[in-house]
Amino acid sequence: MKLLFIMVSNPYSNDFNSLVKFAEASLSRGHETNIFFMGNGLYSIVREEIKALAEKGAKIYYCAHNAEQRKIKPESWAESSSMYGLSKLIGEVDKVLIFD
Amino acid sequence: MKLLFIMVSNPYSNDFNSLVKFAEASLSRGHETNIFFMGNGLYSIVREEIKALAEKGAKIYYCAHNAEQRKIKPESWAESSSMYGLSKLIGEVDKVLIFD
Amino acid sequence: MVDTVWIIKRPADFPEADMLEENDMLILIQDAVLRVPYFDNWLAVEEDVKARNIKLPEDKLISYEDVIDIIEKAEKVIVW
Amino acid sequence: MVDTVWIIKRPADFPEADMLEENDMLILIQDAVLRVPYFDNWLAVEEDVKARNIKLPEDKLISYEDVIDIIEKAEKVIVW
Amino acid sequence: MAKKKLTVVIRSNPFSWKTFEALRQAVGSAMNHEVSVIFMRDAVYSLTDWNPKLIGIEPFDKSISALGMMDAKVYVEEEALRERGINIKDWGIDINIEPKDEICEIIKSSEVVLTW
Amino acid sequence: MAKKKLTVVIRSNPFSWKTFEALRQAVGSAMNHEVSVIFMRDAVYSLTDWNPKLIGIEPFDKSISALGMMDAKVYVEEEALRERGINIKDWGIDINIEPKDEICEIIKSSEVVLTW
């Protein structure tokens, strides 16, 4: 299946751990795994665990507006997107989990 | 008097607004105003409002360990410090307010 | 067959009773493992339970992979 | 003369009754302005009250500068 | 891309940036999906006549207007308003005050539910 | 620099990075001040035999040991333990289980109180 995780939570929260564990489990089951970072979730995009998920095949997106607002410059393996991009992703996947 | 504000709260929280308003009020009353950023509070050190407080005379400190952990590089008007530095500050001021 | 999988994160912050259907399933993660729900159909993520040193019946514990499998077969999922 | 100034941030998250002394003062900021305490000696920051469109008696409203003045004269301050 | 019945549920953190972000998400989603936005529990305070700028938060009036223009539906929990003794302001669009059991039905009939 | 009676009160967010940071602050402060650390309400879970690494959090055992070596005092709210039916683990230092009214006295007699 195609899964989308939306990460909005604060940095260094329990949600970060859950996101990483869920995404790893999704990848290990061979599912298409997308993660979208927005709001305060953006702060977590710079963590090593996210880079590792990207290397294992997770597709990483982020809200460019929130990144700019927070002065965060994601690396090139993360794709700049928007609320409209998120909406299209929601239309393409089977299930959505939001961590907020 | 000498006031110390410790900022630990999450970014884009109500505590950020309270911190800024309290610090402005403290400066307007002519008090020595110190702000120490640690933990998730570090994320707020890059906001314009904090720079403005520094320009008005607030002394800005941060926990270097937390900054490095979060990949945040504060500007030069902020002074790198530690938990020991915080402890010494607490010994030098009259009152301490923590926002967590 | 599960209709809605509810992922519960906070202790006792369960969905209102009106929202739950017979074939729904509650899955406890994070600090939600501290309180058992008044609804038979629940499971908890073992890692989150063990991390907090909470004792729950072994047959209620599942892995993150198991949760993904349950989500795949369910009609929908709501992180509550 | 105020002994301890308690800065309250969350609705109804007041200090335990045992902690409060007669000369203490509760100051409500942020969402704490949504609930009035069962303790006479309280004030609320006007900006936080007005921002939330809450009606409180005018004589209970103070500015951030006023809070700083109260803290200066008090024995100590605790952000609760 | 499939058009879905999508519901954004806002439950807590009134007077915060969270509501602003949730509504931005709802507006973005309303371009492709059939969107409902539900304010329940403490989040109902977000629809009163409050003043975000006073506490450093960006107002979300434009998002509410946009939801109206894109035919998204906005619902508020009736019980939550009553328990708090508050009224919502006129946001210039239809806001449906519904009892909790009706709110539950909307959530149950959605394909995608995003909670805030 | 004045040596002060300083109390760090940890009330919520057990199983989190917050407790780790609060204890780091307590250890740093214990070098110059007379430090008490109080665990009350849900924070008492932090002193049980839990396993932070399983959920991506750094253990704070070293901070607790350091507090012991620097003669800082650690207190736990007795009622909070009882209500939750839990026991604290042996952290290798004296941890004082005290009733709520005793905890209140410690807070009242402090010069600086840092709440978490």
In short:
The complex is a heterohexamer, with two copies of chain A (100 residues), two copies of chain C (80 residues) and two copies of chain E (116 residues). Helices cover 20% and strands 24% of the residues of chain C.
Descriptive keywords:
heterohexamer, C: 80 residues, alpha/beta, 5-stranded parallel sheet, globular, E: 116 residues, 4 helices, 5 strands, 34% helix
Per DSSP, the total helix count of chain A is 4
User: Beta-sheet strand percentage of chain A?
Assistant: 25-35%
Largest sheet of chain A: 5 strands, parallel
Please mark out the parts of chain A with pLDDT under 50 across 5 or more consecutive residues, or reply none.
Answer: none
Q: What distance lies between the first and last C-alpha atoms of chain A, to the nearest angstrom? A: 23 Å
Give the beta-strand count of chain C.
5
What is the average per-residue confidence, as pLDDT of chain C, rounded to a whole number?
Answer: 96
Shape of chain A: globular
The run of helices and strands of chain C is EEEHEHE
Strand content of chain C: 15-25%
Order of helices and strands of chain A: EHEHEHEHE
Largest sheet, spatial ordering of strands of chain A:
4-3-2-1-5
Which class of secondary structure composition applies to the elements of chain A? alpha/beta
**SS-derived structural category of chain C:** alpha/beta
Overall strand count of chain A? 5
Query: Roughly how much helix do the residues of chain C carry, as a percent range?
Result: 10-25%
Q: Strand count, sense and closure of the main sheet of chain C?
A: 5 strands, parallel
Number of helices of chain C: 2
